[in-house]
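During the no-cost extension, the postdoctoral fellow (Dr. R.K.) reprocessed legacy sequence entries with the updated structure-token encoder. One reprocessed record is reproduced below for audit purposes.
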Amino acid sequence: MAEETKDKIKYKLLKFIDLSGFKVFDPPVRLAFGEDPKKQTSEIGKFIILPILFVSLCLLSWHIIAPTHKTKSGAVPTPGKILNAYGDNIRLSEREEEKEDDFLAAGQERRDRLTFVEKAIPELEAKAARLQKLSVEAQKQGEKIINDKIAPLKAKLDPLKAKHKAAKAARKAAVANMAATVAAKQANPEDSIKLAIAHAEKAEAESEAEKILNDQVNAIRNDPPESMNDAKIAANSAADEVQHFKKRFDVLTKENKEIKRTALLAKIAEDEAALASSIDPAVIARKTKSISTNRKKLEKEDQKFAKNKTLGFQTIRSLATVFVGFLIAAAVAIPVGIMCGLNKIVMACLTPIISIFRPVSPVVWLLIFQIVVGAFFLPDPASHPLFITLNQNEFFASSWIEFGNPLAYLQTDAAMIFSACTVAMCALWP
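Re-encoded structure tokens follow.
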């Protein structure tokens, strides 16, 4: 009985692996259930261990070669720097989430957050000042190292420039003398031309000699010591953290939703009191308008924090756009393909259309949709009923999704529709 249960679990796992396409996990599952250990160990070695070793070798090669390969923008970043950049983007996303939570916090939660931020700012400022001081010292040490490396080259370059400058002045004088001699008919004009050509060649050779030394100097300047860059990055990171907490303080004390609502209620009460006691028609009109405007603001319960669109959000939105585009393409292509397969007349009718649209560039499709499809969302795409329905309708919200309505989270708008339709057209004509 236990053996039958074991087999059922095994075959369910193998079926799931087969359906999901992760065949690489087939040998570990079979090995875990004791099926032909020698064969499964061999399969694991060939299809899991060897690929891991190969990828590790590629990363190691990248780590070694990248710093030696210089471009106009500097050295190619190593895997470690890419990982650090990824961490920076994660922190940016987390900071935007923190500011949004600060905006929505109310009551004791807002006060607790404010206390934490007020306590953290002096500590972060002290840390930033210390790191800035270390960065300045590292910059000085780095400049000294760079200048020491450049000094031998400068010792060659400066006398060379002085020598070339003197030679240039001598050539200029020789050209003037030759010109006077030619003007006095004591020399052939051809001699003057030959002299000018010779001088130009010498000037080019001198310029090339200076360029070689200048390139070496610039190469040293463009490759500062790692300690110099690391100290600067650490100082900038600490300064960014200070700015982030100061922004959080502003949000909690000035831009918070609860504070704005309280301020509006206080303003309305003040205007109502002034309206009740005033007999001046101008004051009554002004206060009436102010009360009406502020009451409308209070009715807007869906006020949201204006978050920056981080790289993570843009990536998710792009993937969602491509997914929607493929869904549109499938909704169009599958029925049309079935009709073409079942009816030769339909196939004959659609073949010219397919032949015409297949070569169209994705860039052109995007322009076409901006013009044609964009006409449906005029005059104001942001207030179009379709986007209001998609972004505000609770029908699309799911309790298991942290951000509720995914369409509202992705900020569905006309640009997203254009891009999705472009992906759909590209997917229709493979």
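Residues 120-237 form one domain. The two ends are 52 Å apart (CA to CA). The remaining legacy entries will be reprocessed before the final report is submitted.
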